[in-house]
């Protein structure tokens, strides 16, 4: 069964500093990988996704993520944290075939200090 | 604009009452999902449907029921059998592969 681990419950950075949110997945084949962002009381919005090809993917709001098969990781990065970035971030993994039920991590709360 | 509409956004229920949360999509997606979100627990799957007139239980289906009579609609009923229904509920849809598209959520509070 597929699974996703986000080891950090909270991440705190200073505005302007780089940030990285970690995601590790477990799945036998090449997975489909996603990062979503959720503002308080809102639904989830897709930041970026990886299906195949270039392992470094660019997303919205200046975020990027890198797929590393050897480490089973799909970490989210941003070169410079912004005051608008605080939110809950979810990593998810999906797989082709059968019932399509993406699995979500528990989320990482990002805090940006001015 | 295409998207997913959940209603109501806020709902209060007395103990022992059933309530129904609405989810409508105009994205022409085959698959629809209901998730429950509690603080610190991420998203937990309640029910999902991959086609009209068919749906499957997720990880926490007890105390909930759904129907899928139309492609566009996937309502969730929180029954009186659900012992701790206060939560944030999210509906989503997909083509059956790829990303999920989420509604804005419904917050249910039991009084």
Please give a structural write-up.
In chain A, 0% of the residues lie in helices and 51% in strands. Chain A is globular and about 45 Å long. Chain A has strands at 3-5, 10-14, 19-21, 24-26, 32-38, 44-50, 56-58, 64-68, 73-78, 87-94, 103-104, 108-113. Chain A is built from no helices and 12 strands. Chain A has 114 residues and is mostly beta strands. In chain A, strands 2, 5, 6, 10, 11 and 12 form a 6-stranded mixed beta sheet that branches. Chain A has a 4-stranded antiparallel beta sheet with strand order 3-9-8-7, with no helix packed on it. Chain A has a two-stranded antiparallel ribbon with strand order 1-4. Chain B is mainly β and 111 residues long. Chain B has strands at residues 4-7, 10-13, 19-25, 31-37, 43-51, 54-57, 64-66, 76-78, 87-94, 101-102, 106-110. In chain B, strands 2, 4, 5, 6, 9, 10 and 11 form a 7-stranded mixed beta sheet that branches. The model of chain B has no long low-confidence stretch (mean pLDDT 94). Classes of the chains: A mainly beta (114), B mainly beta (111). At the A-B interface, strand 5, strand 6 and strand 10 of A face strand 4, strand 5, strand 9 and strand 10 of B.
Percent strand of chain A equals: over 45%
Low-confidence stretches of chain A: none
Order of SSEs of chain A, N→C?
EEEEEEEEEEEE
Mean pLDDT of chain A: 92
Helix content of chain A: under 10%
Output the radius of gyration of chain B: 13 Å
Assign a percent range to the helix content of chain B: under 10%
Q: State the helix count of chain B.
A: 0
Q: In total, how many beta strands of chain B?
A: 11
Structural class of chain A: mainly beta
Structural class of chain B: mainly beta
Radius of gyration of chain A, in Å, reads 14 Å
The number of distinct helices of chain A, counting runs of at least 4 residues, comes to 0
**Run of helices and strands of chain B:** EEEEEEEEEEE
Distance between the termini of chain A: 41 Å
Unreliable spans of chain B are none
Count of strand segments of chain A: 12
User: Could you say which overall geometry of chain A the principal axes of the C-alpha atoms support?
Assistant: globular
Indicate the proportion of strand residues of chain B: over 45%
């Amino acid at each position: 069964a597929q699974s996703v681990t986000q080891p950090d419950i909270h991440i705190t950075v200073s505005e302007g500093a780089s940030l990285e949110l970690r995601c590790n997945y477990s799945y036998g084949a090449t997975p489909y990988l996603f990062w979503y962002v959720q503002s308080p009381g809102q639904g989830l919005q897709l930041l970026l996704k990886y299906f195949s090809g270039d392992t470094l993917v660019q997303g919205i709001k200046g975020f990027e993520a890198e797929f590393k098969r050897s480490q089973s990781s799909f970490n989210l990065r941003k070169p410079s944290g912004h005051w608008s970035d605080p939110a809950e971030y979810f990593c998810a993994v999906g797989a082709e075939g059968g019932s399509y039920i993406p699995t979500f991590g528990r989320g990482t709360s990002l805090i940006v200090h001015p | 604009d295409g998207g997913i509409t959940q209603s109501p956004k806020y709902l209060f229920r007395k103990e022992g009452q059933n309530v129904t949360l609405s989810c409508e999509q105009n994205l022409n997606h085959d698959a629809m999902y209901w998730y429950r979100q509690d603080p610190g627990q991420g998203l937990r799957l309640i029910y999902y449907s991959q086609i009209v007139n068919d749906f499957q239980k997720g990880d926490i289906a007890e105390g909930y029921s759904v129907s899928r009579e139309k492609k566009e609609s996937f309502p969730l009923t929180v029954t009186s059998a659900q012992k701790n229904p206060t939560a944030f509920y999210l509906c989503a849809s997909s083509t059956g592969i790829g990303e999920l598209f989420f509604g804005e959520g419904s917050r249910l509070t039991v009084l």
